[in-house]
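Hey, resending since the last one bounced:
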Amino acid sequence: NARNLEQRAFNLRSRANSVTAMDMVISWNGLSRAVRLCGDYSEARDVGQEAYEYGCEKLGAKHYWSLRSLIDLSIALRRIGTSHDDSLTQAQIVYDQCGVIRGPSHPDTLAAAINLTNIQRTIGQTDEALALAEQTVARYPAIYGPDHPYNHGCASNLGLLRRVTGDPAGARALNEAAL
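The structure tokens again:
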């Protein structure tokens, strides 16, 4: 499965002499993501924390791969269920840094924004999440084109927020369009 392949790639890179720090962060973060997608959120947090710390040490905290690993770390923290405060803090940091460094319409900033809306929704900050999700969903088509899967996934997130904020008709329209 993907987790085993990511683990193997990470192990091979860890032993190789000519691997760059960026390649290590990419591999480490890929492993963290695969672990998370297999449902082991605590391990994903641990692996993700190591990837992020390594990225900060070797590439700098504002390097795009360090920031990408921070997005995935924040997702793992949210999924654990007991780390919502940490997830919100990390999500806000990475969203703010991506916005300053990459601009509001960069794919990394958009991903960080959607991550932030997910933790905001989870902890009950639904009005803030809805406003940010609406802004973010409006930016996606210009970056990826109107039929890219990210557009539809983000529209589904916005639909979820519309439902929890009392607009089931709007939610249904978004979800049907995304489907």
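The chain is about 80% helix and 0% strand.

Sorry for the duplicate.
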